[in-house]
């Protein structure tokens, strides 16, 4: 029973998966750019980013038992008060642990400030137990939800960079790329939770806007992501051959054109909708791989 509970808590700490955790794509992309990939540096990045991200996920789940119940997601925090208390303890511990290590290990002191801002925003995003008793959670309205992601994604990239190297102008440009990547997903992520969010009274993007509007906005930011890669390749931030990755955007452009011409019949493009996330993840993996090859 204890082992089963541990597995379920671990599963919740991994959900939702991102390109920070449990798949450290951003971390290794940063390493491929700063010409450093020693064992010590890799461990720093992984330990801090994984512990923080797991804490964020657990804190979100223990505060979302009402929404999960409405959506039919009967996880252990919904079923067991004692395990929910354990989840609260683990979430707070992992937040604190990652913050302490950031103070101790940051190569650039500015990383501490960026990390603190991300920690505060992600805490307030989910919290309904402490400050959430008096303030509306940031996730409860699409405007504050969008603001949280728009700040947290690039700031977390900057903080991770500053853990292992000095923060320079290239750092901010890379964070901009991942801001576009993150917003591509933000506009789509809650479409599957419309019923539960609506019953819980949340005014999320998926509750307030039609799917075609959200998909259009998502596509715009994906085009910006690939356009940024092309521009930074041409102007020397990235190796020139990274520009070939930007051609992945053709699938997204074709998909949106097909949807518009067919009155937003998503059934006609289901295979393309499945392919686009694969291409997006592959773009980061490919650039990272090419970056490490350059270091050889």
Structure explained in plain terms:
This protein has 14 helices and no strands. It has 296 residues and is mainly alpha-helical. The protein has 2 domains: 208 residues, Farnesyl Diphosphate Synthase (Orthogonal Bundle), CATH 1.10.600; 86 residues. Helix 12 runs antiparallel to helix 13. The longest helix is centred in the C-terminal third of the chain and has 26 residues. The model has no long low-confidence stretch (mean pLDDT 91).
Observed structural traits:
mainly alpha, Farnesyl Diphosphate Synthase, 2 domains, 14 helices, 72% helix, 0% strand, globular
Question: Helix tally?
Answer: 14
Please tell me what the overall shape is: globular
| Biggest β-sheet strands, sense, barrel | none
Oligomer: single chain
Order of helices and strands: HHHHHHHHHHHHHH
CATH class of the largest domain: Mainly Alpha
CATH topology of the largest domain: Farnesyl Diphosphate Synthase
Strand content: under 5%
* Low-confidence segments: none
> What gyration radius follows from the Cα positions, in whole Å?
20 Å
State mean pLDDT (0 to 100 scale).
91
How many E-type strands?
Answer: 0
CATH architecture annotation name of the largest domain: Orthogonal Bundle
Helix content: over 70%
Q: Could you say how many structural domains there are in total?
A: 2
Give the distance, in angstroms, between the N- and C-terminal Cα atoms: 49 Å
Q: What structural class do the secondary elements suggest?
A: mainly alpha
Secondary-structure blueprint of this entry?
Layout: H1 2-13, H2 25-34, H3 39-63, H4 65-70, H5 76-79, H6 81-105, H7 110-126, H8 142-164, H9 169-186, H10 194-199, H11 205-208, H12 211-234, H13 249-261, H14 270-295
Helix pairs in contact: 2-14, 3-6, 3-7, 6-7, 7-8, 8-9, 9-12, 12-13
